[in-house]
Specification:
The protein has four helices and four strands; from the N terminus they run ααβββαβα. The protein is elongated. A four-stranded antiparallel sheet has the order 3-2-1-4. Strand 1 and strand 2 form a beta hairpin. The protein is of the alpha+beta class. The termini are far apart. It has two domains: about 30 residues; about 70 residues, no CATH class.
Length: about 110
Amino acid sequence: MKTGAKICVALIVVFLLVALCFPLIAPQFLSSGTTQGVVTPAVQDAPYYLGVYEGKLASFETGKAVPLEIYDIPLKFFSEYDQELLQKGIPAEDKDALSVLVENYTS
């Protein structure tokens, strides 16, 4: 077999391995632990929400990628149920409701 053909076969094998393994490893690379840019139906109707930014609790104004505030509380410290809620975003009708959510999750 010629060198060019060997390289071509090797590249095809590597490509196929990556294509087969990507679904297994993709969630680690695609999920940064953030709700940034994620708009669930409940959140899109609310002006504010509590969510996750770079793996930490954060408050957001709906439609904005940058959080209003990031809290030094990693997502892993919350129960699995709360982690799921925060990753989807917990809507708040106004800043007062957002403050109540923050108080509940930080105390």
